[in-house]
Amino acid sequence: ESCAFDLLGAEPVRELKPGEVVVARGKSVESFRLPRVPQPTRCIFEQVYFARPDSEVFGDSVSESRLAMGMQLAREAPAAADIVVPVPDSGLFAALGFSRESGLPLEFGLIRNHYVGR
Asked: Domain locations in the chain?
């Protein structure tokens, strides 16, 4: 997830490979790989739930991916509804995509308090 590096003002160089560890000390950067490299697999929950929308995961923008998924959902499963209400926070961009594609207005009905624990 790229957002942590964005906050530091770091420029992306490349994505880490499966089983890779990068150690940065001062101006020295070393890369190590596990002896047996696992077969890379992706977890869809990274794109739809875990990652922050201002990040890139697997080389794709999380917000753009969620927006596209919401638009595709509106095409595949149109809703007989008056409004689209997003479920914060991971559902915001998908709901926006659904709203744009369906023509239904986006209205906030659920608000998440970011200042209390779960």
From this structure: 3-102
**Strand 28-33 and strand 20-25: pairing?**
antiparallel
Residue 70, CA atoms < 13 Å, CB-side half-sphere = 27
Tell me what pLDDT residue 118 has.
Answer: 66
- Give the side-chain half-sphere CA count within 13 A for 38: 7
Which secondary-structure segment (H or E) carries 60?
strand 60-61
Residue located via tokens 């997003």:
86
Model confidence, pTM: 0.75
Q: Where residue 18 falls among pLDDT bands split at 50, 70, 90?
A: confident
**CA separation for the pair 98, 84 (Å, rounded):** 8
pLDDT at 65 over 90: yes
